[in-house]
Amino acid sequence: MAYYGYHRISTKEQHLDRGIIEIKRFCENQKIKLESIFTDKITGKNFDRPRYTVLVEDVLRVGDTLIITELDRLGRNKQEILKQLRFFEEKGVRVMVLELPTTLFDLSQMENNLAKMMIETINNMMIELYASMAQAEMEKKEKRQKEGMEAKRLRGEWDEVGRPRAIEQEKFNQEFMRVVQKKVTPTQLQRELGLASSTYYRYRKNFYENFPEFLQSI
User: Fold this and answer.
1) Nearest CA-CA partner of 93 in 68, 70, 63
2) Per-residue pLDDT tens for 78-121?
3) Rounded to whole angstroms, how far apart are CA atoms 144 and 86?
4) Over the Cα atoms of the chain, what is R_g?
5) I want to staple 130 with a disulfide (CB 3.0 to 4.6 A). Which of 71, 104, 116, 207 is the partner?
Protein backbone atom coordinates (compact mmCIF):
# COMPACT_ATOMS: atom_id res chain seq x y z
CA MET A 1 0.00 0.00 0.00
CA ALA A 2 1.45 3.36 -1.05
CA TYR A 3 0.39 6.99 -0.65
CA TYR A 4 0.50 9.48 -3.53
CA GLY A 5 -0.52 13.12 -3.79
CA TYR A 6 -2.03 14.97 -6.72
CA HIS A 7 -2.43 18.72 -7.19
CA ARG A 8 -3.66 20.75 -10.16
CA ILE A 9 -3.83 24.45 -10.85
CA SER A 10 -5.15 26.24 -13.90
CA THR A 11 -2.82 27.80 -16.45
CA LYS A 12 -3.69 31.27 -15.11
CA GLU A 13 -2.61 30.45 -11.57
CA GLN A 14 1.06 30.91 -10.73
CA HIS A 15 2.25 28.48 -8.09
CA LEU A 16 1.73 24.81 -7.23
CA ASP A 17 3.56 25.25 -3.92
CA ARG A 18 0.56 25.76 -1.62
CA GLY A 19 -1.12 22.48 -2.44
CA ILE A 20 2.15 20.55 -2.34
CA ILE A 21 3.00 22.01 1.08
CA GLU A 22 -0.47 21.16 2.44
CA ILE A 23 -0.21 17.53 1.32
CA LYS A 24 3.32 17.12 2.69
CA ARG A 25 2.40 18.74 6.02
CA PHE A 26 -0.63 16.47 6.41
CA CYS A 27 1.46 13.37 5.73
CA GLU A 28 4.14 14.48 8.19
CA ASN A 29 1.55 15.09 10.92
CA GLN A 30 -0.11 11.73 10.29
CA LYS A 31 3.24 9.88 10.04
CA ILE A 32 2.35 8.85 6.47
CA LYS A 33 5.14 7.92 4.08
CA LEU A 34 4.37 9.84 0.90
CA GLU A 35 5.83 8.28 -2.24
CA SER A 36 5.39 11.21 -4.62
CA ILE A 37 3.17 14.15 -5.57
CA PHE A 38 2.02 14.43 -9.19
CA THR A 39 1.17 17.91 -10.48
CA ASP A 40 -0.46 19.45 -13.54
CA LYS A 41 -0.76 23.07 -14.58
CA ILE A 42 -3.80 22.75 -16.79
CA THR A 43 -7.55 23.39 -16.92
CA GLY A 44 -9.86 21.37 -14.72
CA LYS A 45 -12.54 20.93 -17.39
CA ASN A 46 -11.47 17.37 -18.22
CA PHE A 47 -9.01 14.72 -17.11
CA ASP A 48 -6.80 14.59 -20.21
CA ARG A 49 -3.70 15.70 -18.30
CA PRO A 50 -0.12 14.44 -18.72
CA ARG A 51 0.83 13.76 -15.09
CA TYR A 52 -2.64 12.69 -13.99
CA THR A 53 -2.73 10.14 -16.80
CA VAL A 54 0.63 8.71 -15.71
CA LEU A 55 -0.55 8.55 -12.10
CA VAL A 56 -3.81 6.78 -12.89
CA GLU A 57 -2.65 4.45 -15.65
CA ASP A 58 0.88 3.56 -14.58
CA VAL A 59 1.29 4.22 -10.87
CA LEU A 60 -1.78 3.66 -8.68
CA ARG A 61 -2.45 0.07 -7.65
CA VAL A 62 -5.09 -1.71 -5.56
CA GLY A 63 -4.75 -0.68 -1.94
CA ASP A 64 -3.02 2.62 -2.69
CA THR A 65 -4.26 5.99 -1.40
CA LEU A 66 -4.53 9.23 -3.37
CA ILE A 67 -4.40 12.50 -1.40
CA ILE A 68 -5.71 15.80 -2.77
CA THR A 69 -6.21 19.13 -0.97
CA GLU A 70 -9.60 20.12 -2.39
CA LEU A 71 -12.11 18.44 -4.66
CA ASP A 72 -11.80 21.16 -7.31
CA ARG A 73 -8.07 20.40 -7.56
CA LEU A 74 -9.17 17.05 -8.96
CA GLY A 75 -11.48 18.68 -11.50
CA ARG A 76 -14.27 21.21 -12.10
CA ASN A 77 -16.76 19.15 -14.08
CA LYS A 78 -19.17 17.54 -11.64
CA GLN A 79 -20.01 14.43 -13.65
CA GLU A 80 -16.37 13.85 -14.53
CA ILE A 81 -15.32 14.22 -10.87
CA LEU A 82 -17.93 11.67 -9.76
CA LYS A 83 -16.91 9.37 -12.61
CA GLN A 84 -13.27 9.49 -11.54
CA LEU A 85 -14.16 8.82 -7.90
CA ARG A 86 -16.23 5.79 -8.94
CA PHE A 87 -13.28 4.61 -11.02
CA PHE A 88 -10.96 4.84 -8.01
CA GLU A 89 -13.46 2.98 -5.84
CA GLU A 90 -13.73 0.17 -8.40
CA LYS A 91 -9.94 0.11 -8.77
CA GLY A 92 -9.52 -0.29 -5.01
CA VAL A 93 -7.82 3.09 -4.55
CA ARG A 94 -8.78 5.18 -1.54
CA VAL A 95 -9.15 8.95 -2.06
CA MET A 96 -8.52 11.38 0.81
CA VAL A 97 -9.70 14.98 0.34
CA LEU A 98 -8.14 17.22 2.97
CA GLU A 99 -10.99 19.76 2.87
CA LEU A 100 -13.50 16.96 3.65
CA PRO A 101 -12.53 15.53 7.07
CA THR A 102 -14.86 12.52 6.82
CA THR A 103 -12.84 11.22 3.84
CA LEU A 104 -9.83 10.95 6.14
CA PHE A 105 -11.39 8.08 8.10
CA ASP A 106 -10.26 4.63 7.02
CA LEU A 107 -13.66 2.97 6.77
CA SER A 108 -12.10 -0.44 6.13
CA GLN A 109 -10.88 -0.41 9.75
CA MET A 110 -14.26 0.45 11.28
CA GLU A 111 -16.12 -2.38 13.04
CA ASN A 112 -19.28 -0.41 13.79
CA ASN A 113 -21.36 -0.91 10.64
CA LEU A 114 -23.88 1.80 11.53
CA ALA A 115 -21.14 4.41 12.06
CA LYS A 116 -19.47 3.29 8.85
CA MET A 117 -22.73 3.65 6.90
CA MET A 118 -23.33 7.12 8.36
CA ILE A 119 -19.86 8.35 7.40
CA GLU A 120 -20.21 6.90 3.89
CA THR A 121 -23.53 8.73 3.50
CA ILE A 122 -22.02 12.01 4.71
CA ASN A 123 -19.05 11.54 2.36
CA ASN A 124 -21.32 11.03 -0.63
CA MET A 125 -23.43 14.08 0.23
CA MET A 126 -20.41 16.33 0.76
CA ILE A 127 -18.67 15.13 -2.41
CA GLU A 128 -21.85 15.76 -4.43
CA LEU A 129 -22.11 19.26 -2.93
CA TYR A 130 -18.47 20.21 -3.44
CA ALA A 131 -18.44 18.82 -6.98
CA SER A 132 -21.49 20.96 -7.78
CA MET A 133 -19.77 24.02 -6.29
CA ALA A 134 -16.60 23.38 -8.33
CA GLN A 135 -18.57 23.23 -11.58
CA ALA A 136 -20.64 26.28 -10.67
CA GLU A 137 -17.47 28.28 -10.05
CA MET A 138 -16.04 27.21 -13.41
CA GLU A 139 -19.23 28.15 -15.23
CA LYS A 140 -19.35 31.53 -13.46
CA LYS A 141 -15.76 32.32 -14.52
CA GLU A 142 -16.46 31.32 -18.12
CA LYS A 143 -19.58 33.50 -18.15
CA ARG A 144 -17.62 36.51 -16.85
CA GLN A 145 -14.88 35.96 -19.42
CA LYS A 146 -17.37 35.78 -22.30
CA GLU A 147 -19.17 38.89 -21.07
CA GLY A 148 -15.86 40.74 -20.80
CA MET A 149 -14.82 39.72 -24.32
CA GLU A 150 -18.19 40.77 -25.74
CA ALA A 151 -18.05 44.11 -23.94
CA LYS A 152 -14.62 44.84 -25.45
CA ARG A 153 -15.85 43.94 -28.93
CA LEU A 154 -18.84 46.25 -28.55
CA ARG A 155 -16.51 49.07 -27.47
CA GLY A 156 -14.30 48.43 -30.49
CA GLU A 157 -11.40 47.17 -28.38
CA TRP A 158 -10.81 43.98 -30.36
CA ASP A 159 -7.04 44.59 -30.48
CA GLU A 160 -6.94 44.31 -26.70
CA VAL A 161 -8.73 40.99 -26.89
CA GLY A 162 -6.41 39.72 -29.57
CA ARG A 163 -6.81 37.09 -32.23
CA PRO A 164 -7.92 33.60 -31.26
CA ARG A 165 -5.01 31.24 -30.64
CA ALA A 166 -4.23 28.63 -33.27
CA ILE A 167 -4.74 25.94 -30.63
CA GLU A 168 -5.17 25.94 -26.87
CA GLN A 169 -1.99 25.12 -24.93
CA GLU A 170 -3.80 22.33 -23.05
CA LYS A 171 -4.75 20.68 -26.35
CA PHE A 172 -1.18 21.02 -27.63
CA ASN A 173 0.14 19.45 -24.42
CA GLN A 174 -2.11 16.44 -24.90
CA GLU A 175 -1.02 15.99 -28.52
CA PHE A 176 2.66 16.67 -27.75
CA MET A 177 2.69 13.73 -25.31
CA ARG A 178 2.63 11.55 -28.44
CA VAL A 179 5.98 13.10 -29.41
CA VAL A 180 7.35 12.56 -25.90
CA GLN A 181 6.23 8.92 -26.10
CA LYS A 182 7.80 8.71 -29.58
CA LYS A 183 4.52 7.73 -31.21
CA VAL A 184 4.91 10.49 -33.82
CA THR A 185 7.78 12.71 -34.92
CA PRO A 186 7.77 16.47 -34.23
CA THR A 187 7.38 17.14 -37.96
CA GLN A 188 4.38 14.83 -38.18
CA LEU A 189 2.67 16.49 -35.22
CA GLN A 190 3.37 19.99 -36.57
CA ARG A 191 1.79 18.99 -39.87
CA GLU A 192 -1.22 17.35 -38.18
CA LEU A 193 -1.92 20.46 -36.10
CA GLY A 194 -1.31 22.80 -39.02
CA LEU A 195 1.12 24.98 -37.06
CA ALA A 196 3.90 27.17 -38.40
CA SER A 197 7.36 26.22 -37.11
CA SER A 198 7.62 29.33 -34.92
CA THR A 199 4.20 28.64 -33.39
CA TYR A 200 4.97 24.97 -32.85
CA TYR A 201 8.24 25.67 -31.05
CA ARG A 202 6.60 28.36 -28.90
CA TYR A 203 4.03 25.83 -27.70
CA ARG A 204 6.81 23.27 -27.28
CA LYS A 205 8.79 25.69 -25.09
CA ASN A 206 5.72 26.31 -22.91
CA PHE A 207 5.22 22.56 -22.53
CA TYR A 208 8.74 21.95 -21.21
CA GLU A 209 8.54 24.99 -18.93
CA ASN A 210 5.45 23.50 -17.30
CA PHE A 211 6.69 19.90 -17.36
CA PRO A 212 10.52 19.98 -17.06
CA GLU A 213 10.55 16.34 -15.99
CA PHE A 214 9.94 15.35 -19.62
CA LEU A 215 13.12 17.10 -20.80
CA GLN A 216 15.09 13.95 -20.09
CA SER A 217 13.09 12.17 -22.79
CA ILE A 218 14.48 14.45 -25.51
Assistant:
1) 63
2) 888 888 999 998 999 999 999 988 888 877 776 667 766 776 77
3) 32
4) 20
5) 71
